[in-house]
Write a structure and sequence with these properties.
The structure holds 2 protein chains of 2 kinds. Chain A is built from 3 helices and 8 strands; from the N terminus they run ββαβαββαβββ. Chain A is of the alpha+beta class. Chain A has a single domain, classed as 3-Layer(bab) Sandwich (Archease, Possible Chaperone, Chain: A, domain 1). In chain A, the strands form 2 sheets. In chain A, strands 1, 2, 6, 7 and 8 form a 5-stranded antiparallel β-sheet that branches. Chain A has a 3-stranded antiparallel β-sheet with strand order 3-5-4, with helices on one face. The longest helix of chain A is centred in the middle third of the chain and has 19 residues. The radius of gyration of chain A is 14 Å and the shape is globular. The mean pLDDT of chain A is 94. By secondary structure, chain B is an alpha+beta fold. Chain B has a single domain, classed as tRNA-splicing ligase RtcB (Alpha-Beta Complex), CATH 3.90.1860.10. Helix content of chain B is 35%, strand content 25%. In chain B, the strands form 4 sheets. In chain B, strands 7, 8, 9, 11, 15, 16, 18 and 19 form an 8-stranded mixed β-sheet that branches. Chain B is globular and about 60 Å long. Classes of the chains: A alpha+beta, B alpha+beta.
């Protein structure tokens, strides 16, 4: 009996930086989870209140570049708005991605952010079927 | 790394002979102990770099090399524009012109010990560090353009520093031929409030003591004596550089197909030097170098203000400022080459015209940041280094353990307490960040500089140990 794909994220080791990996029933859900994994590189997503919404759109010629583009778009919003995000809703249609991210401004006392993310790399970059669902992963530079 | 796959050239030099798509061999400089511990990914990445068009002589890895993205961190490669050579955004990395700046203070250890705790507190209050921090300077469009074209010279003209500082910075503090117009609006927006900020991760500001001298003549030329207090700043081009790296990585990954470049790893994204994408990246990357110069200059100004208040007799003069994530046009073998150094420091030997006059006969200072709390080194470029790796040396200790593993192994508070017991005051907005940067998560910086010295890449001059560490 096949198990229902579960939305989840994890980190994996890279010698200098951190790998972020998302699983989901759809590509969009795997992208959401990968972004959540990226937030967790900075701070515990559980302490980030999803009270402000930001709309993000991006595109790229293939799934893998689209994942990097998506994570880089989130990094850009984190950096310019000085926010952290703890909830994402992503729709992928071909080469195009539209998303909403919910979060709040960085609060050093409460979030205790460890490190800022500079960019999503193409190292170990992968978007692929995983069981009945999807996996989306890459290494982020911190 | 599996030694059986390497040909040992000498005690500290190992070759990966040419095979398959490699256009040149790869050469790793390291002691046997360092190379045994080196990740096999360094081997793969050094081999991949050797396949890029127009690469000259060899793909090099420094003694601190570790698994990077595309290039190994600690990678050096030079490309010839006349031979179809490429420029690679992946070969410079996200933190363009990340580098180290070292300042004399004119102080000795007792001067600092009297005020150590208060000075640490004031520095941590005055130097914006960590996630979400902003500087006091807000740059609108015209000033942003001026900064990206002017670098540290722009900062000094605005009153953040002394004209004499400029002589002691690579490129006299201003990277020529920068093209601010090749940096996107997004890159500029990301930088608007980030001037004079330290950043996070492995970036730091330390007050250090010179605890050992290895070459009295060069140390004297550099103005370093036992017991001297120095300030070392490690940071880069902040959000602007990160955004430029991100955007050109993508455009080069896409355009590579158009230029017929086969990428063994997409992270090696590159474009011909003589192409629109290549030229645009070069212009934007040079603007990011200026951003890094200006940023370290403003940080210097903030540090000087604190010292003036806390230790009025201090005189903070710049020893040197050198970057370790760049692509520079340099003349080697009598032709201009595009030398990529990713996590590697330029190390010009004695007499090179680009070294400040006062230091020229001693060789260029090579500033090596160690891990938090362990120690840093100042080395000097050698004549021999030109033939070894286009005048390049290591840049730091290099990580030995992932952040993930470090976090499982240490708690930030314990690291801070442990260092305090050893006389080092650590200030950081994030205890988790401190745990991820625990000293033992890095390679032994002494082993790295000893290998660089023994290989002839640079000569060991002085060791410095921290008394105060401000972490981002």
């Amino acid at each position: 009996m096949a198990l229902e794909p579960v939305a989840a994220w994890e980190h994996y080791a890279h010698e200098a930086d951190v790998g972020v990996r998302g699983f989901g029933a759809t590509k969009g859900e795997a992208f959401e989870q990968a972004a959540l994994a990226m937030t967790a590189v900075v701070a515990d997503p559980a302490v980030v209140a999803p009270r402000e919404r930001v709309t993000i759109r991006c595109e790229a010629p293939d799934d893998e570049l689209l994942l990097a583009e998506w994570l880089n778009a989130v990094i850009y919003e984190m950096s310019t708005r000085r926010m952290l995000f703890s909830k994402f809703s992503v729709k992928v249609k071909g080469a195009k991605l539209s998303a909403e991210a919910w979060g709040e401004p960085v609060d050093a006392e409460r979030h205790r952010p460890a490190v800022e993310v500079k960019g999503a790399t193409y190292t170990t970059l992968r978007v692929a079927r995983h069981g009945d669902g999807w996996l989306a992963q890459t290494v982020v530079d911190v | 790394m599996d030694l059986s796959r390497l040909r040992r050239i000498d005690e500290n030099q190992w070759e990966i002979p040419m095979r398959e798509a490699m256009r040149v061999p790869a050469v790793i400089y390291a002691s046997e102990a360092l190379i045994r511990d080196m990740d096999h990914k360094v081997y793969e990445q050094a081999v991949n770099v050797a396949t890029l068009p127009g690469i000259v002589k060899a793909s090099y890895a420094m003694p601190d090399a570790h698994w990077g993205y595309g290039f190994p961190i600690g990678g050096v490669a030079a490309f010839d524009p006349e031979a179809g050579g490429v420029i690679s955004a992946g070969g410079v990395g996200f933190d363009i012109s990340c580098g180290v700046r070292c300042l004399h203070t004119g102080l000795k250890r007792p001067d600092i010990m009297k005020v150590q705790r208060d000075l640490a507190h004031e520095l941590s209050r005055s130097v914006p560090a960590g996630v979400g921090s902003t500087g006091a300077i807000h740059l609108e469009e015209a000033e942003m353009e001026a900064m990206l074209a002017g670098g540290a010279r722009w900062a000094v003209e605005r009153g953040w520093g002394l004209p004499a500082d400029l002589e002691r910075i690579e490129e006299q503090g201003q990277m020529k031929h920068a093209q601010p117009g090749c940096a996107s609006q997004q890159a500029k927006k990301r930088q608007r409030d980030e001037m004079g900020t330290l950043g996070s991760g492995n970036h730091y500001l330390e007050v250090q003591e010179v605890t050992a001298l290895f070459d009295a003549r060069i140390a004297a030329a550099y103005g370093l004596a036992q017991g001297d207090i120095a300030v070392m700043i490690h940071c880069g081009s902040r959000g602007l550089g990160h955004q430029i790296g991100t955007e050109y990585l993508k455009s080069m990954a896409i355009s590579a197909v158009h230029y017929g470049i086969r990428l063994p790893d997409r992270e090696l994204a590159c474009a011909p030097i003589n192409s629109d994408v290549g030229r645009d990246y070069l212009g934007a990357m040079r603007a990011a170098i200026n951003c890094a110069f200006a940023n370290r200059q403003i940080l210097t100004h903030l540090v000087r203000k604190v010292f003036r208040r806390m230790v009025p007799q201090a005189d903070l003069r710049l020893l040197y400022d050198v970057s370790h994530n760049t692509c520079k046009v340099e003349v080697h073998q009598e032709r201009p080459l595009y030398v990529h150094r990713k996590g590697a420091t330029r190390a010009f030997g004695p007499g090179h015209p680009d070294i400040p006059a006062a230091l020229r006969e001693a060789g260029q200072p090579v500033l090596i940041g160690g891990s938090m709390g362990t120690g840093s080194y100042i080395l000097a470029g050698t004549r021999k280094s030109e033939a070894l790796a286009f005048s390049s040396a290591c840049h730091g200790a290099g990580r030995a353990m992932s952040r993930h593993q470090a976090l499982k192994t240490w708690r930030g508070r314990e690291v801070v307490d442990d260092l305090a017991a050893r006389g080092v005051i650590v200030k950081s907005p994030s205890m988790r960040g401190v745990a991820e940067e625990a000293p033992e998560a890095y390679k032994d910086v002494t082993a790295v500089v000893d290998a660089a010295d023994a290989a002839g890449l640079a000569r060991k001059v002085a060791r410095l140990e921290p008394l105060i560490c401000i972490k981002g």
